[in-house]
Amino acid sequence: MSYIWNNFAEIVTLSGEHLTMVGIALVISLLIALPLSVLMARSPSLTTLVTGILGTLYTIPSIALLILLLPVFGLNQRSVIVALVVYTQIILVRNIVAGLQGVSPILLDAAKGAGMNSWQRWRQVQLPLALPVILAGVRLATVVAIAIATIGAKFGAGGLGTLLFDGIAQNRYDKIVAGSIVVALLALALNYGFLALEDYFDTKKRIQRQAKRQAAPQPMGQIQPA
Amino acid sequence: MGTIRFENVSKEFPGMGHPAVDNCSLEVTEGDFVVILGPSGCGKTTLMKMVNRLYDPSAGTIYLDGQDVQQISATKLRRQIGYVIQQIGLFPHMTVAKNVSVVPHLLHWEQEKIDRRVDELLDLVDLPPAEYRDRYPAQLSGGQQQRVGVARALAGDPDVILMDEPFGAVDAITRESLQDELLDLQRQLHKTILFVTHDVDEALRLADQIVIMQRGQIVQYAPPLEILSRPANGFVNQLVGGDDMVRQLSLVRVEKVMQPLPPDFRNNGQPTIESQHTLRMALSRLLRSDVEELVVVENGTRTGLLSLQDIQTHDQLETNGQREVNGRGALHEKHEKNATNGRSP
């Protein structure tokens, strides 16, 4: 543990690199997954095809995939980011499609009948109702991406993996432990962050919170003397 | 505003042996409450959904106030037509106020106007705004949800409202009170309502005119009493239970058969009957009280007379509140002379 306090600045820098890679990869991955899922939710045959391909890609070991990507993207963060996009894609797509398909066709009929165009139906009905499930996908993808990004250090991308690989090379057990702890903490923190967001956008839980607030007793100060 | 004309409208779905809607012609008069009645799969919902272009006809034309609906952009058309669906279809992630204001938002009303409209509508459907505005649909009973559904359909102040088995998902008692409330609303608002149901009692209770469909075709288009007394064929007779007189009497309201108050009417203290009550109730009152006719009252004012003969003989209908109903498909021309719905023109 003392390694973390003594090298705090270095760990912050490495964490920053790590999160930057993960963040960029997730943004790109979402930008691909959202439109793709909208198309897939309409076409079952496309869903089978795309999930098949993405599922196969997901089974490729990360070191193998990175080695394949190196000649194209170079020995830097770009290769790692592309790999993260490939791995998170299947998680995002599966959850977004499930979320969209979970929206009752009756509600879409009602939205259509009220005169919403397809963008308005997506924005006002489908997306908000699918959001908790989509966010669960983003949460899973984030945790997976944080774990996989540690390998990036081997390929010149920096990040918290540096501590692990340096630790192994230098036989510095404290570095390995420090790196593991920080990676685990990052994953946990983001996991709970997204969980909180899911709760916030979940209609059922929102209703429970509202009911609780209304049921809460008035503070003493507001009671008027008789 | 609010006339709908179907001209030789057909709708075929790929992969189905016969057309869902088969060459239907129908004219719906402004302000009429028209119920489309038929067994499931008869094409009634398909016929209705072509009005707001949720389906486009394979052949024929539908005119809304004289304009071909295919010439109006689908979203614009739908925003000017109220729509209440099966199983309510309130958006679970929106509050009652948000649900009701969906169409006004799409029409880009100012927020202040929208807020006023929401409160007005919630008052209209008997859900005090202060209490219900900020609730979510999951916090309402089935009946309350359906009232919000009706308020949502009324929000943009449409001339035409389409209702697709709106009360199918609520229990029998709630359904009856919702039906009464809907009739009350219609008396205030005079919208053109197209209401789809497979429930005969519901149709007879609500309709000014009933459209009976069978295998995609319109079999009869007539007021409830005429459907009962002169069913177009055996199918209609069987569907509405035309032979069961007592059942008929318990479904038809006094206002549908009463005679207008004669100018020389004098109040001799005859027993009265509410115009909303059924003929069955009127009959029992007549039998009990040994008078020739009852005075019909509506909201405390006398509006008409009802005699045993009025109840007995539906043939006399044409003398009552005569009204032109035109362009109702060749099949029904022969019933034309009987067309009436017991209201003044």
Verbal overview:
The complex is a heterodimer of chains A (226) and B (345). With 226 residues, chain A is mostly helical. Chain A has helices spanning 2-6, 8-42, 44-59, 62-73, 77-101, 105-113, 118-149, 161-170, 173-201, 203-215. In chain A, helix 2 packs across helix 5 (77-101), helix 3 (44-59) runs antiparallel to helix 5 (77-101) and helix 6 (105-113) crosses helix 7. Chain A is flat, with a radius of gyration of 22 Å. With 345 residues, chain B is α/β, with parallel strands linked by helices. Classes of the chains: A mainly alpha (226), B alpha/beta (345).
Topology, please?
The complex is a heterodimer of chains A (226) and B (345).
Chain A: H1 2-6, H2 8-42, H3 44-59, H4 62-73, H5 77-101, H6 105-113, H7 118-149, H8 161-170, H9 173-201, H10 203-215
Chain B: E1 4-11, E2 21-28, E3 33-37, H1 44-49, E4 59-64, E5 67-68, H2 74-79, E6 81-84, H3 96-100, H4 102-106, H5 111-124, H6 129-132, H7 142-154, E7 160-164, H8 172-189, E8 192-197, H9 200-206, E9 209-214, E10 217-222, H10 224-229, H11 234-240, H12 245-249, E11 259-260, E12 272-274, H13 279-289, E13 293-298, E14 301-307, H14 308-312
Question: Brief overview, please?
Answer:
Chain A is mostly helical and 226 residues long.
Q: Helical amount among residues of chain A, as a percent range?
A: over 70%
Note the total helix count of chain A. Answer: 10
Instruction: Return Rg of chain A in Å.
Output: 22 Å
Could you tell me the radius of gyration of chain B in angstroms? 21 Å
CATH homologous superfamily grouping of the largest domain in chain B: P-loop containing nucleotide triphosphate hydrolases
The amount of beta strand of chain A, in percent, is under 5%
**Distance N terminus to C terminus of chain B?**
16 Å
User: Remind me, CATH topology of the largest domain in chain B?
Assistant: Rossmann fold
Task: Tell me the number of helical segments of chain B per DSSP (H or I, 4 or more residues long).
Answer: 14
Average pLDDT of chain B, rounded to a whole number, is 83
**Extended strand count of chain A:** 0
| SSE succession of chain B | EEEHEEHEHHHHHEHEHEEHHHEEHEEH
Largest sheet of chain A: none
